[in-house]
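S., here's the first fold you wanted:
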Amino acid sequence: MKIYFLKLLLIILTLPHSIYSQTNIDFYKAFESIKGDSILKHLKYLASDELEGRGLGTKGIRLAANYISVKFREFGLKESPSTNNYFQEIPFIGSTTLNSSEFNVYTNEQNISLRYSEDYFLYKSGQQTFIPVPTELVFVGYGIVAPEFDYNDYQSVDVTGKVVVFLDSEPISDDPDFFNGREITQYSFAEVKRQIALQRGAAGTILIPFERYSGWEIVIKDFAKEDIRLAYDLTSNLSVIINPAIAKLIFDDSQYSFDDVIQMHQKHQMKSFPLKTKISFRGSFKERAFVDKNIIGILPGIDDKLKDSYLIISAHYDHLGIGSPVENDSIYNGTLDNAIGVSVLIELARAFSSLNKKPKRTIIFIAFTGEENGLLGSIYYTDNPVFPLHKTIANVNIDGIAFFRDFESVIGVGSEYSSLENNLTETAERYQISIEKIPEEFQELTSFTNSDQYTFASVGVPSIIVLEGLQNRTKSREEVLQSFIEYFELRYHTPFDDLNQFIDEVAAERHTKILFDLCYHLANSVDEPKWKSDSPYLKARLRSIAEKK
């Protein structure tokens, strides 16, 4: 027994003084129980070829769901009160657009048939997508209405019953008070543009990939696959992404050409105007219906006043499944995106469950499905929350984990919108690491809108994802940056994001411990995270509270 307490004292003395002076032995025992080899054990199964890339509606994702639920049961997490099990079942529809679909562009002189995959793809598809007669087009700049920036692309045009055309970018800005300067805002998100258009009565949307994609071959990589949507999200509105090489066609004979539009963008002089061309669309589709699951485990809080408030810790466990072969490998294992993230989620659930004195607030652990297909699992949860969203204090999402064990900085993606910035800063100080912003090279890839934390923000729940920064004790900033670039260029969303790459279990363990500390203090804090007064998500929070959603 003496040896045990001496070892525990040694653990405490090796932790930062600012931590152990504020917490207790129970925290340290759980903290030190987090092990990199445990994370890798989960990872080696979840990212194995046996699970075939965990594509939606497949045997592989069902195996992954069962594995996670078994772990939640082992840890003694409570089941969802709405289902009496760990599963939130979600009905999906999968739709594949066939080459026999008919998309016609009508100019003053001719009718032109566009070719599916070569000239366009559908963002959303299904039997309801149908425009039988030639329909007018209106160019609406970036397709943005942003009252907080006093910006409205729809102010001078009527789009009711028409198809709108917009660029995939947003206004160029060096002013942090106008579209956040060089940082990407939610308004560059294609789904946000689409919703704005539909709210104004548009019959459909055509997006021109002006900046988001470096070439049509990258678009093909993203869109040449089955479109999967929530079964209740039937679309009757055309939603197209069109090849920029033929974008000039739809500006034919109009007041301004596509080249003029590019000049408008560069000169900060964007205009909206009606187009002379019209389009029609008659789709052909192959469809299937299936059910997949979010996995939800609950650790009830113990404080009489705070236990009915909730912290959600999440990670998505789906990936791309089996796809086009690259060097004879067709399994898109998704090891770092995001089998490792859900492996960390499992380890966090075990560590929190091991606490003798559980946190004051209730913690909900959720492994989401459908993230790769448009955050569908988290959207379904926020549409059908197990516990009220207005009582959910925050979401800490995990999508990727540290590459290098000697990292000395972290990035709180989304922390700038809320007081979670303060919580992360306090955690970082306890470990003597710094906070840095998203490197400019990765603004788009690591945008706040790119994973499930955005879903929670959009319904008013303060949220954050914590990534590894570029500062490192043993590697230069350039070395770390180059490693990230190589991952995104060579392995991300390819069959090479598999178990053959080096996974640093020490880095994973250290990152997980930092997340444990952040979540532990959030779950025990009397103060809830708050949106900042200029946050675009504040109104959603106030609405949620008013409606008691």
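And the second, which I think is the more interesting of the pair:
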Amino acid sequence: MWRGTTSWVTAGALLLAACGGDDSPSSNGGATGGGPPPPPPPPPAGSVYAVPLAESLSAADVGTVVARAAAEANARNAAATIAVTDRVGNVLAVFAMPGAAPTATIVGAPNGDDIDVQGLTIPSAGAAIAKAITGAYLSSGGNAFSSRTASMIVQEHFPPAPTTAGLESGPLFGVQFSQLPCSDLSARASDGLIGPKRSPLGLAADPGGFPLYRNGVVVGGVGVIADGVYGLDLNVLDRDNDLDEAIALAGTVGLEAPVSIRADRITADGTSLRYTDIEYPQIGNVAGASFVGTAGALVPVAGYYSGAGLLAGSAYGSEASGIRPSTAAEFSIRDAFVLSNGAGGNRFPVRGGTDAGDVAAPITAAEARVILEEAFTVMSRARAQIRQPLDSRAQVTISLVDTRGRVLGIVRSPDAPIFGIDVSLQKARTANFFSGAFAANELLTAPGEVPEFVARVRAFVGDPNALTGAFAYSDRAGGNLSRPYFPDGEVGQPHGPLSRPIAQFNPFSTGLQSALVLGNLAQHLGFVTGASGTDTPRNCTGLPQITPGATRLDNGIQIFPGSVPVYRNGAVVGAIGVSGDGIDQDDMISFLGLHNAGVRAGGIGNAPKDIRADRIVVQVGSRQVRLRYVNCPFAPFLDTAAQNVCEGL
């Protein structure tokens, strides 16, 4: 599955806890919690992927979502802030009920020594928007994930519970620091209704965010905060009576996720994921709720929503959504989707490297196209791990960058989750950055605590010249160094040099990843609350600018697997990043896709074996631990039973 193994005892307990009630008739006016979706349209002739139907939320739909959530809040004597977005993150409504608190508090560090965004006071509207975006962005026609699902997969142990210490970290550990407000990829409200949009707080791990569906197609998300705490679920083995989650679930009535694709129908390492702790029979009869007469008001949110009225969402796949099918001139491969500028232009057309002054032979436009196409081909043959029905094809986004972190092309499958767009670019830039000769010097010039991480890495790996280009780092390797236990999950072991110590760690302070963007987040939250009139710039981190207004890490770093650097004649010339399915699938698509591109084009390929990060051995007590480079899944393809497809490459 996603990776590793989980004991059958834990897996069984989670499976039992996750079942029961989702598809039972409820008291909400006859809603069943989402019936089976209609079958998707067949793929066009010559294609292997079906294109999602052109479904969207109307302004009336948005009002109904708000009204139904507010009705449940009233029934629970609560005052909530409710946000609704479309699939690509356009904010369609933010509604504050009478008495709703304007702010919430992020949970603090376990030891009380708050750092990064731990313990911060944040605008409730920002929390609600982040939850709605999380539900929409993590979901697709093959999987419905909620912000509770996100909580389960970003913590230091998977599954998270007091009794699961010693297991590895969540498979999407670190994904919460994506879709950042400083991202150069994620669009802003001032750009017009073009997605994918940024989130004020990245992705949320706080229950209370769900996707919205129509005819089996993701059309948006709803997010709620009423309890005043922006946190996470530390124990997935019990079931919470979560106020935010109950109110948000009521908002989905009539637009529920199909039962067959909810997170609790999907397993990772044999463990059922969690979709919700509140079932539909536990919410009231909200089906007759109307926005007209609902007490409260639409509220403006700087940088996201004007507050002028209920908005309609864009239909995913249309020009207005910012994501559309590619033209034959853009990609010769069938089924490719690209990001659009709203006027028909590809935001990230395939091009050659911009770093001619830095490397001897940059990636050419022809090579860039071959890399993206070969990775796409591997994806289209691969068996998905987080999609239903079983034996679906993997669906991901693929990004390619040069050594300056400039985008050389982005391509995706028709129904890949939206979160993977920003994350695939983060992964590509991270692999490139840590593999380059420039990493240490640029970190040493950054503000705040960031320079200290260089010394920590060098001491940890016993190499005074670490991060100067001697080794090729994949995101899996960098992720090894970013966990609060090293080796990953082993209680009592030291923390990785890019992580926080476990006594101070939680998903709101991961280490270098969060330290790099702390200034951006602080500036942006000041802008949202009105304390500052200046928003964060369109580049994350305080690293040196390589070109005016641009660093090598303009949307932050990512610390879970799915990327490898690109090499030519022993020198790094860029990197490829993949996101949207299981992390082993992401690894394979990037690694094997790049290998195949090298065979096809010649001159480019994966890093030489003797400089890959899995040659780095760390002394941990009396034993030596080797970093990992990539993990490829067992029997990964639908068209062959081949095993060990990455072995020896």
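Why I say that: The chain is about 25% helix and 15% strand. The CA atoms of residues 66 and 235 lie 29 Å apart.

Talk tomorrow,
H.
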